[in-house]
Design brief:
Chain lengths: ~300, ~230
Amino acid sequence: MLCKVTRTFKAGAQNFFRNGWLSIATVGVIVIALFIVNVQIAIMFANNLLLNAVEDRVNISVYVNTDVQEDEVMKLRHEIEQYPEVENIEYISRKQALADFKERSKNNETILKSIEEVGSNPLGAVLNVKAHNPDQYETIASKIDQSSFSEKVSGVNYLKYRDIIDNLNKEIKANQKGAIILAVTLSFIAILITFNSIRTTIYSHRQEIEIMKLIGASNNYIRLPFIWEGVFYGITAAMISVPLTYLYLQFIGNEEVTNSILPLSNARFIKIFLTEYFMKNLVLVVLFQCTFGVFLGVFSSIITIRKHLKA
Amino acid sequence: MIIFENISKVYPGNFPALENVNLKIHEGEFVSIVGHSGAGKSTLLKMLYAEEQPTSGDVYFSRKNISEFKARELPYHRRNIGTVFQDCKLLPKKTLTENVAFAMEVSEKKTSEIEEAVPQILDITGLGKKFDAYPNEVSGGEQQKAALARALVNRPKVLVADEPTGNLDPISTWDIVQLLLKINEFGTTVILATHDKPIVDKISKRVVVMDKGRVIRDEAHGRYCI
Ligand SMILES: Nc1ncnc2c1ncn2[C@@H]1O[C@H](COP(=O)(O)OP(=O)(O)OP(=O)(O)O)[C@@H](O)[C@H]1O
Ligand SMILES: [Mg+2]
């Protein structure tokens, strides 16, 4: 059994090298298949990062009237926290709000002076409300609006940003959906092309298969070299597609190039994906590539060889 | 040991290639099968190693009906027979040495055994220094010698040789025939299909004459006459 494995392995390696341009063509097709899938995954990842970044930054600021006491603000906060849509609330006290404001305006003498002239703190406390997901801000805003404490609130800033948030959200989601559909379609085409390419390779060996049968080779002995060859195709393709993907992402991670082609999944996030995910999990990436490539190669080989071994 | 029983063979869309052939070949025999081109010699031999199935009739090998072999038993049956195909059927992407070694590899012989036997048999068949060439780089006669080496390397009980000397000069031909006679002496059954009249006459063993798909003569110490 072991001898069968090593011998067919050797034969597979031999075929791989002696097939010349046919091997190169097959590997090339698998490289393209892997590359397409990689780039799609990278763009999807970058979109996700962008979406997360935007979602992270979105919140509702509830401005409380200046005459509301701190313990009442806490009650209010507690009440809003009860909404199922709310993830967390950041409390900014009047003092803190003033300090923040002063810090922000430290280069503006007039503002600083006028605050000092007022004497008392002109700013109310602020509750920064974060929802579980961005769709929920509208609900939260309207709940606050209709609540018993609505007159204690001087304003909710969500309304101002609503359109921007909604649009961004919609656009990213549409982009994401498009990327998934494209990825699935292209992968499917890539698999078909690989399958066809391997079929051609094996078909060109049909006379050899016939001869091997007549000499008394068992089906396994005929099949295994082709399967090993599929393994070689997959691994070689993976070894090419990983650096190729890296270079390509590096290229579209360049702001000037990309922002004209891919307005949303912008360069910054592709770069983040490249350094934070792709390079940090390089072993995993290579393993995934090999697995996928080998699967493509072996699966196509098995399907095709089955036909030739019948009868 | 080998019995052809009422064999007929009709290739699709053709007149019969074999008609009602009955033939018995005993263990250790040397049988020459002669006849015109198209007489059905190759077709008859193909039934033995199951490249073709008879349209009607049965072929028995060591008492087993070949048509009853299951697909997974067929390789083992074929390994019992060393075959020199009329068209050589060498694997084009393997060197002559590798082609010969391949027959041993598929029979799951030990590597050490292969390394010993392959150069030996190549030497015996007189392939000289060409053993690392690919089939398309050597002459037709050299291909035939390699094909013969491949057929013999597993020391089969039966050797089927379909015109193994068709491309050889008279001296090489005689060398090969002497080799066949020698392995026959050591107990291998040899079935030889050939056109070569002087050779058949010189061998002076059993001769089966075929014509238009029928056996028309079968003599224990025959000569080539049609
Ligand atoms: N695969 C095939 N399909 C159709 N007809 C075939 C096939 N093989 C052989 N024949 C026909 O069967 C007949 C016998 O052929 P066969 O090859 O057995 O002859 P042969 O005696 O070996 O001839 P030769 O001496 O030229 O090798 C011929 O008429 C040939 O045309
Ligand atoms: Mg013939």
